[in-house]
Amino acid sequence: MWKIARRGQRTTSRADVLPSPNIWYYPDTYELENRAQDVEGDIWRVLADECPWQGKDVLDVGCGDGFHLPRFAESARSVIGVEPHEPLVRRAESRVAGLSSVRVLRGSAQSIPVPDASADIVHARTAYFFGPGCEPGLREADRVLRPGGALAIVDLDVSSEPYGRWMRADLPDYDPAAVDAFFDGQGFRCRRVTAKWRFADAESLAAVLRIEFSPEVADRAIEDVLRDNGSRGRHAAGFTVPVGYRVLVRDKPTGLVLPGHSSSSSSSVSISPSTA
């Protein structure tokens, strides 16, 4: 699965990659979705609280067409976006062409083409990490993180209504409690956030929901949103949808982790050569 290009670096293989059912095939509609998401900045506020990136080196795994890269670049020292799908890599490069601190590389979550210990923050948003089975990506994130760095995963909270209800209808085998238990067992802390999606018109709302859900579930979701918004959708507020997220964060220890201490804690014990 992995090919070593040189020590501390890996190249990507298409066998590593699970195609995205939305942005790979509908990038223009997904741009509408990105612009509609988290319009009040609730996710960004939690991320800034849990793992501030000002003056640090940020790596965004599964960056898609680079939508979030400029936001990180406003205050980070450097930003690297990693994306496996070549057309999206090109779109991301075009988006950040004027930002000297940002690079976009082709790679996957399991095979990130950067050296060991080269990032302070690894960020992944609704990209790869959906619970059991993502262990290779978690190990790879740990490889590229510096001691004291943080892995931040922003994922949809499938237990949250109404968006989670629509997701569960399309994914009946998805077990939100099992996914929560997995990340807890991997040493992540979790903060749940309800973000607001806002669409200017019903056409944009419908287009986005139709790339996220099966036709039957999309029809139901559109009907739910139109009913819940009522006449508000015909005014300046547009159409809003509350969407639940989990912000999962795991810190990389700065020293030796002793038995009984969490590997996600930055308060691990450092032992100098003179005392080891």
3D architecture notes:
With 276 residues, the protein is α/β, with parallel strands linked by helices. Helices cover 32% and strands 24% of the residues. β4 (78-83), α4 and β5 (102-106) form a beta-alpha-beta unit. α1 (27-36) packs across α8, α6 (163-170) packs antiparallel against α9 (215-229) and α8 packs antiparallel against α9 (215-229). The two termini are 37 Å apart. The model is unreliable at 1-13, 258-262 and 264-276 (pLDDT under 50).
List the helices and strands and how they pair.
Blueprint: E1 3-6, E2 9-11, H1 27-36, H2 42-50, E3 57-61, H3 69-73, E4 78-83, H4 86-95, E5 102-106, E6 119-125, H5 135-144, E7 145-156, H6 163-170, H7 176-185, E8 189-199, H8 202-212, H9 215-229, E9 239-251
Parallel strand pairs: 3-4, 3-6, 4-5, 6-7
Antiparallel strand pairs: 1-2, 7-9, 8-9
Index terms:
disordered N terminus; SAM-dependent_MTases_sf; disordered C terminus; Methyltransf_Superfamily; Class I SAM-dependent methyltransferase; 9 strands; 276 residues; methyltransferase activity; single chain; alpha/beta; 9 helices
Order of helices and strands: EEHHEHEHEEHEHHEHHE
Mean pLDDT: 87
Query: Helical segment tally?
Result: 9
> What is the overall silhouette?
globular
Protein name: Class I SAM-dependent methyltransferase
Keywords: Methyltransferase, Transferase
GO molecular function: methyltransferase activity
Organism: Amycolatopsis tucumanensis
